[in-house]
Amino acid sequence: MNDLSLLIDLHLKGQRQGPGGDEQTRLAVKLSGLEQKSDLKIADIGCGTGASTLVLAELLEASITAVDLLPEFLGCLNNTIANTALESRITTLEASMDSLPFDEHSLDAIWSEGAIYNMGFTAGVKAWRPFLKPGGILAVSELTWLTASRPAELDQHWQQEYPEVDTAAGKIAVLEANGFSPVGYFPLPQRCWLENYYRPMQARFAEFLDRHSHTDAAKAIVEAERAEISLYERYSSYVSYGYYIAEKVGE
Ligand code: SAH
Fold it and tell me: Does 139 sit in the ligand 1 pocket, CB within 6 Å?
């Protein structure tokens, strides 16, 4: 099994494939003002197994396209919604976030939790804006520094993994420079990382290693996750995901 298949296997059973929480998705929806509207068209990009998609479908009168590169995750979402009332509201789409098939001005909102980093925040904001109707909403969560300075170990790790990591002020400046007006920001609280993401993942490590006969590749994946968890535990007051809600302006 290659590294990607192993990663899929480790994350498939998670309720989330990144830090987040239903409560925080609900808060973002509230800030977006979309609850007052009907007949909405929304894309949830990099949806994974669909934690945020399910919340959006429950709260909004919307038809939602749940997009991910990995069909395994979309299959899981399709199983979750099969024979439920949400089935008619959610359509899954296997596509890459940097070449999406949406028409210009076709979407009321674009959602994306913990995924835009795959193409980079600035590139994503620029590439997705044309799909939104004038006044459309962009709601994304993105790795964010919580303070102006931070310990060198943490800084070096994330600068290397994701050079676009920045403060909320920096992220909001990118939104403003690219035709968006911010309507809300909040950082994800620690429980979104620990209780909702890392702890459930840690609980799957032993079974994951057994299932893959403790191969070097499987052990390396677990070790990398353990190192990231340890870093987060030591420095959670300096880094989180920021949730950014912004309105498309200038058209
Ligand atoms: N939004 C989900 C998943 C976050 S993990 C949650 O919060 O739980 C990031 C997701 O982005 C994964 O599901 C991964 O498969 C997806 N992804 C990675 N690269 C992608 C790409 N180029 N296009 C679309 N999705 C991508």
Answer: no
